[in-house]
Model the fold of this input.
Amino acid sequence: MYGVKRLGEWLLQKGKITPQQLEEALAYQRQTGRKLGEALIELGFITHDDYYEVQAEQWECPYEPLSDATIQQAMAVRHWIGMDEATRFLVVPLREEGIILWVAAADPNNVEMIDYLRQSTGKFIKVAFSPPERILQAIARIYSLHGVDEQRTDNTVEIEERGSEEIADISQIDKAILQTPVIRLVNGVLLEAVERGASDIHFEPLETRMQIRLRIDGVLYPVREIPLTLMPAVTARVKLLAEMDIAERRLPQDGRFVIKTGNAKLDARVSSLPTVFGERVVVRILNRDNATKSLPDLGMPDPVARGVLNLASKPWGMILVTGPTGSGKSTTLYALLQQIKSERRNILTCEDPVEFTIEGIGQSQVNEKIGLTFASQLRAMLRQDPDVVLVGEIRDAETAEIACRAAMTGHLVLSTLHTNDATSAPARMTDMGIPPFLINSALIGVVAQRLVRRLCERCKEPITVTDPAITSLFGSTQLDTYRAVGCSACGNIGYKGRVGLYELFIISDPVRRLIAEQADSEVIRAAAPEGTLFTMQEDALQKVRSGITTIEEVLSQIHIQQPRASAA
Done:
């Protein structure tokens, strides 16, 4: 935030240090790699308050040390700022002076914070600087000692922790992670993610701060910035929840925990990755309600849903769901399992990891660390007398061959594959080394899918599009559809939730002959008999016409071809 010259000059000008002390500190800095401020403090030449005064001057605002008397005074005006907002912005109220509300903040130039407080309080906001660790201590005293925040009594999150009793015995853990404000800070981020329907939380260390972003409907949005001094405590807190090794910062780790909010429980999977500026942590939030949805609930059009269920009613064969990572393949398979499970069918799954549990289905998890791969687990599952087998992903030739042979010997096999469209699946399997005769004998159908954002029903606005570049895609000169606007219900984004775009390819005899000849995707697509290929383009254009999504969303996910001109 400031250079060596500015800091040294200020301290010299204020008489806080002598020129000789500055020279000693600079030499110590070169020797240890410390920042100049840290070097001066460690050498005993200045106090922490001296250092904070310099920072306040850089912010061009007063410095607030948050003494006991100030905190007592702040308790009388704490009703102006809720605890969640205080933790979110790292700000506490100080005093009220008529139409002016004085606050202490770790980032006095946070425009979002100032605008929010101005609107929520109706007062002019004056800001003083206080370091983040003192802000956290002040939040604990101003709010935590006086019960929960009255403004947010119904919206809370609880974390199921199994290892928390061991915290006190781990000497390497920074005591800061046990402080109530740090716990509330992390819980506040989790609550915001749940309330906004986020699928992932990214804790990203940068050179001067930690940035927190939420992935909402497939798009990342920055929501908070955490001062560098709090980054280790916040990271350790998340790792602690996931029962990961807090002392290990050099290797990637994985963990999980459960978030409880109201009557709902959500599973959270955690991944840490060492980076240049510290550990990067991503929390994936899995909503268990997704495991109970039907195919139409996901946005699958009736012709595709009927076709998929018809394929799944067959006693044997392989059905593949294809698409890129994060396109909802697993959710589609879970929805299909929900609709075909019965007491007369033995359904087993082999997943990595098991995202949701489904009653009445035997689910097992791959563990490659001990040699339990998809292939080895699939072999074992076939000795369990299954009727239906779900393989989480076909990653290699061995797994693909075992799955194909299982489909040929009286089992219905469901799995996923990474391809761009449904007709590319046979070629992808051939590239993996699977003989065409095995593919022809096993494969009965392929579903391809993408996810697009769903328009907010409350604020979407009807429009008429006449741009030939767009209307020609729909085979007309005018398109009546909807556009995104933004309101409080969707967080001023204009979209709320996501919906699938689907393609169904049913393997027919003419197509099998082409697979045997190792024809490419375009040849197979062109030769598919009528009624065996429902294209993603058809589904996408229909969802645009119906106002479910926008043309911009569709074009961002798939390539739409111009309709062929009719013969004159």
Observations:
- The mean pLDDT is 85.
